[in-house]
Design brief:
By secondary structure, the chain is an all-alpha fold. It has one domain. The chain contains 7 helices and no strands. Helix 3 packs parallel to helix 5 and helix 4 packs antiparallel against helix 5. It is globular, with a radius of gyration of 16 Å.
Length: 178
């Protein structure tokens, strides 16, 4: 899996940049309508899902573990599809959608990070990103009545932290292109 990820370090870097951009939009334009946030989140989940699928395909071609990346990609694209099929429903369900997506992504990234520790000593960035995703999802479930503005700031902060972690991980993988 390390070789496939290292060859495609740029895909992880792009995922991180996409998360950073999404997070900055959420923080600097908190007054945006719920529909705009749903559409922006749907676009992010789609791009993230497609890039995760690309990484899974590369890993499969290299006969390396690819299932967690495939599942992550499918979940991201499915969540994006739900947001565009019924924007009104997605707006009402955005809170739960993001919580579930973050928790699933967190678990899968922790699994991938633990697997990478076998071939990449002291690998902690992907595990850290997974832990951040999982904590974010759990906090959203624990505090469902938080105000809309608080939720937008939480989403923005999470996306920025996750984006920084993915950018760092992508750049670290770039050095392992062997």
């Amino acid at each position: 899996m390390l070789h496939a990820l290292a060859r495609n370090w740029w895909a992880i870097l792009l995922r991180g940049i996409a998360a950073l951009v999404f997070g900055l939009f959420a923080l600097f334009w908190p007054g945006a309508t719920g529909v705009a946030l749903v559409i922006l989140f749907g676009a992010y989940a789609f791009v993230d899902g497609v890039l995760a699928l690309a990484a899974a395909l590369r890993a499969a071609e290299a006969h390396e573990r690819w299932a967690p990346l495939l599942i992550e990609g499918i979940v991201g694209i499915a969540i994006a599809g739900v947001t565009y099929v019924d924007v009104g429903l997605a707006a009402r369900a955005l809170y739960v959608t993001i919580a579930v997506w973050a928790a699933i992504t967190g678990i899968l990234e922790i699994v991938a990070g633990v697997q990478l520790r076998k071939v990449l000593p002291n690998e902690w960035l992907l595990v850290l990103g997974g832990i951040a995703s999982l904590i974010f999802g759990v906090l959203m479930v624990l505090y469902p009545l938080a105000g809309a503005l608080t939720v937008i700031y939480l989403i923005g902060a999470y996306a920025i932290v996750f984006g920084v972690v993915l950018v760092g991980f992508g750049l670290r993988l770039r050095g392992h292109r062997g």
